[in-house]
Specification:
The protein is an alpha/beta fold and 458 residues long. The protein has 15 helices and 22 strands. The chain has 3 domains: 2-55 and 225-302 and 404-456, FAD/NAD(P)-binding domain; 57-93 and 304-398, 2-Layer Sandwich (Guanine Nucleotide Dissociation Inhibitor, domain 2), CATH 3.30.519; 109-214. The chain binds flavin-adenine dinucleotide (FAD).
């Protein structure tokens, strides 16, 4: 895909126009290219990728947020990369989880035997964990769906699973997937995360895994970071892109999309995909049809997740391994990952790049949150981390556009189509489950299928 200026755009050269070039928009364009379509991506910012990107700070290559990708072998995102990029990007898997509860460290028990030896709770807590673990591991998707409007904490309480340490460890895992606490997360989405439903097979398979365990992780970091990944995707798209191009209106006439207004200039087209957040759409969609306006009003209230990431460039290697560390207690939950241990190219030789991530604390300033991240056990449990800092960089951003709470699960999303013919929506608030890039890929998958189906039938 080549960058062109708005003045050089001839809309009829393209099969589809994508308003917004975040993960959803780019993955849609990538898959459409594979199906022989030519795409124009119109992006408001001065770069592509939305919150999916990375950049250099004082010799260290940071991503926007701690992007350790969940499901790099299976799932929608992996499928996109494996199908449409040749050769597929290289991922380095992480070496397992380490949950810290004060002076104790444990991983996620992967078998009944391991659960009974779990170091983070006493025997009663382990028995409780074994009981609820067995329930979750053998639960089918249909049953999980019945818990979509129940919070995970309510689900756990209704199953007498109330051991506080167990809840706190689960909280830290669910925080990362749903972006909210277990008091708010939809039990259905939390259960899917814990069960890893992509892997769902027969009940016998689940029971076998429960008894004999599985230490297989499907999470990792991509060589080249997020900026490298976005570049690979951009290069593989058939079409052009325009930057600094604010889509101000999307026009509808007689029930069909007719074009967009970008920086005051009208581009006529009858196949438009919008990757613009749904919360902004009521002001952008230009229609006099009540059904169209109420559709966009209805879906504009999605609540996003927000994360804060503290990047530390260290003058020497302090952590030096590929463990995914979570500081559960003392609270607040923090994830600590040595990114340069996955991909040394993101730090100067002999130095280390570490990311510390946390869900934002409402009502606290960025400075206060950084102070909180750096205290509460960080120096006690990770000595040396703060003594060797030569680069410090903080990011605060929405991570996904719809937290997985009751009313916002993948069963409560609008999907790819709108009431306007030829007008589709994509992004982490339109469809999909799980962590950000999986959601974006699932939503892109839906849009691509819808476009191919609709264009074939006309
Ligand atoms: C801190 C953090 C940590 C994360 N960690 C992970 C992780 O570990 N694993 C994982 O899988 N995912 C992770 N993600 C999430 C993932 O990157 C995002 O969820 C995903 O990239 C969002 O995709 P989206 O399609 O919803 O697009 P967005 O990024 O919201 O893209 C929307 C695009 O539309 C553009 N736009 C908006 N309005 C207009 C307009 N009027 N005209 C033109 N263009 C417009 C925007 O500029 C943007 O480029 C993380 C994200 C962050 C920030």
């Amino acid at each position: 895909m080549e960058q062109i200026s708005l003045d050089d755009v001839t809309p009829s050269d393209y099969d589809v126009i994508t308003a917004g070039g975040g993960a959803g928009g780019l993955l849609t364009a990538l898959a459409l290219s594979h199906h022989g379509k030519k795409v124009l991506v119109v992006e408001k910012e001065d770069r592509l990728g939305g919150v999916w990107h990375g950049y250099w700070i004082d010799g260290f290559r940071v991503d926007k947020g701690l992007h350790v990708i969940t499901r790099v072998k299976r799932g929608a995102f992996a499928r996109f990369l494996q199908t449409y990029l040749s050769p597929p990007p290289e991922f380095v898997l992480h070496d397992g989880w380490l949950f810290r509860v004060h002076d104790r460290v444990g991983t996620i028990p992967s078998s009944f035997g391991e659960t009974l030896r779990w170091p983070l709770t006493g025997f009663k807590g382990r028995l409780g964990l074994a009981r609820i673990g067995a329930k979750i591991k053998t639960m089918k998707l249909e049953e999980m769906r019945t818990y979509k409007d129940v919070t995970f904490l309510e689900f756990m309480r209704s199953h007498n699973a109330t051991n506080q340490v167990m809840l706190d460890v689960m909280q830290s895992a669910i925080y990362m997937a749903a972006g909210v606490s277990i008091e708010k997360a939809s039990a259905y989405e939390a259960l899917r995360t814990l069960k890893d439903t992509d892997k769902e097979s027969s009940k016998i398979g689940s029971v076998k895994r429960l008894l004999f365990g599985s230490s297989e992780y499907d999470e990792g970091y991509v060589i080249g970071g997020m900026s490298g990944l976005v570049q690979r995707v951009t290069d593989a798209i058939n079409g052009d892109y325009v930057l600094n191009a604010d889509v101000q209106s999307i026009h509808e006439e007689d029930g069909a999309v007719t074009g967009i207004t970008v920086n005051g200039q009208r581009l006529e087209h009858n196949n438009i995909v919008s990757n613009i957040p749904l919360w902004a759409m009521p002001k952008i969609v230009n229609s006099s049809v009540a059904e169209v306006n109420s559709f966009f009003e209805r879906w504009s209230t999605m609540k996003p997740t927000r994360g804060i990431t503290l990047w530390l460039g260290l003058d020497r290697v302090v952590i030096g391994d590929r463990k995914n560390r979570v500081l559960v207690h003392p609270t607040p939950n923090r994830w600590i990952v040595s990114i340069s241990s996955f991909d040394p190219s993101c730090a100067p030789e002999g130095k280390e790049l570490v990311a510390i991530a946390m869900i934002t604390i409402p009502g606290k300033s960025t400075e206060e949150q950084v102070e909180i991240m750096k205290s509460n056990g960080l120096t006690k449990y990770y000595p040396g981390l703060l003594d060797h800092v030569e680069m410090e960089h903080v990011q605060v951003s929405y991570a996904t556009r719809a937290a997985l709470i009751p009313g916002q699960t993948d069963l409560d999303r609008p999907g790819p189509r709108t009431p306007v013919k030829g007008f589709y929506i994509v992004g982490t608030d339109t469809a999909g489950s799980g962590v950000g890039l999986q959601q974006a890929a699932q939503s892109a998958d839906g849009v691509v299928h819808a476009i191919l189906e609709d264009t074939q039938s006309t």
